[in-house]
Design goal:
358 residues, alpha/beta, Glycerol-3-phosphate (1)-acyltransferase, three-stranded antiparallel beta sheet, 11 strands, acyltransferase, transferase
Length: 358
């Protein structure tokens, strides 16, 4: 994409009014709840900015995957990327990473869950071969290894022995259908201003294979139409049965993402789905509430899910069903920052701090 096309896309998303669509409102509620838990010092306007930027980078990432002018301009980094476990995240133009590895002649195999393979597996393989052809480089025997099959470790070992690297998306929880915080393959780690449940499988496989880990994240600079790359080498855990070693390794894996989110939180796609894996503690500070908004949008949100209207408590991620009439009344307050006369739930919602600054 050219700079003017990027700017047009960015401006079109910035002009979206989130409160004009039930779907946008619903999606934004959970994005805002996650931001509030992990970055509690940010105000509601910043939540909206991050949500829009995240949507922008999600689209940009898809388009950058075959942005051959950009791919050719990105110089190969001075890191050993072969025979490694390469760990990345759904951050910035993350789809560009596969294209860069192809351009740099790094043989790799992607590790993904069954859901990803069913929905995107064929298109990912086709895309790999098409990009290699367009770049006029060698197309290695690319494949996607199913992380949920019992043979995953043996397939990973075989790939390493054959000179391939293994690419993992550490924050790939969006595609796992019934995964919950209580599953055995997750551990809780400190992350930003809260805690988060993440997969420990990367650390386990690294320990089993005795292969070092390299985290690699892209940071897209739309002003200069360029890409910065952040890498970090991590030693594999010596003892896969040692919980402390696995936890320390996993914390290190997420460290670069954590650092980038502090500076540019809008580039993370994970805001769209990571609410299922964040520890909500109901301790939101009163200092970050708006001084002017009547509806307490920092702590609460309203929405519609499967035909049911609700109020969301962003501190606890709990939904309370409401009538369509109450939903429309609250939506009017959010849009206009004023209350209609004789609003029946005024007193109750004021006592619950849903309505403030009155």
């Amino acid at each position: 994409m050219k700079s003017n096309e990027i700017n047009e896309l960015y401006n079109s998303i910035q002009n979206i009014n989130i409160f004009e669509s039930d779907k946008w409102i619903h999606d934004f509620n959970f994005i805002s709840a996650s931001i509030g838990a992990l970055l509690p010092d940010l105000n509601f306007d910043q939540h909206i900015k991050i949500a829009k930027e995240s949507a922008f980078y999600q689209i940009l990432s898809s388009r950058d995957e075959r942005n051959y002018d950009l791919i050719r301009r990105v110089k190969k980094i001075d890191f050993n990327l072969k025979n490694r476990i390469l760990v990345t995240f759904h951050y910035s133009s993350y789809r560009l990473l596969n294209s860069l590895l192809i351009s740099w002649s790094v043989p790799f195999k992607l590790i993904a869950d069954d859901n990803y393979i069913k929905n995107q597996g064929t298109s990912t393989v086709e895309s790999y071969n098409k990009i290699a052809e367009e770049l006029n480089v060698n197309a290695y025997d690319f494949e996607i290894i199913n992380a949920e099959e019992r043979t995953v470790v043996f397939k990973c070992l075989k790939a390493i022995e054959e000179g391939y690297s293994l690419v993992f998306y550490a924050d790939g929880n969006s595609g796992t259908g019934g995964m919950t915080k209580n599953q055995k393959n997750l551990i809780k780690i400190p992350f930003l201003e809260s805690e988060m449940y993440v997969r420990k499988g990367i650390a386990v496989i690294a320990s089993l294979l005795k292969v070092p880990i390299c985290t690699i994240l892209l940071n897209r600079d739309i002003n200069s139409n360029s890409v910065d790359i952040f890498c970090d080498n991590i030693e594999f855990p010596k003892n896969r049965k040692n919980k402390k070693e696995l936890e320390d390794c996993t914390i290190k894996i997420f460290r670069n993402l954590e650092n980038l989110l502090i500076k540019e939180p809008g580039q993370w796609e994970g805001w769209f789905y990571y609410h299922n894996f964040i520890e909500f503690n109901n301790n939101a500070s009163i200092n970050n509430l708006s001084n002017t908004s009547i509806f307490n949008n920092r702590w609460y949100g309203i929405g519609k899910l499967a035909g049911v209207y609700y109020i969301l408590n962003k501190k606890t991620l709990k939904l309370v069903p409401i009538s369509k009439e109450v939903y429309l009344e609250l939506l009017y307050i959010i849009k206009n920052n004023k209350i209609k006369k004789d609003f029946p739930l005024f007193k109750t919602l004021k006592e619950e701090n849903v309505l403030i600054n009155i």
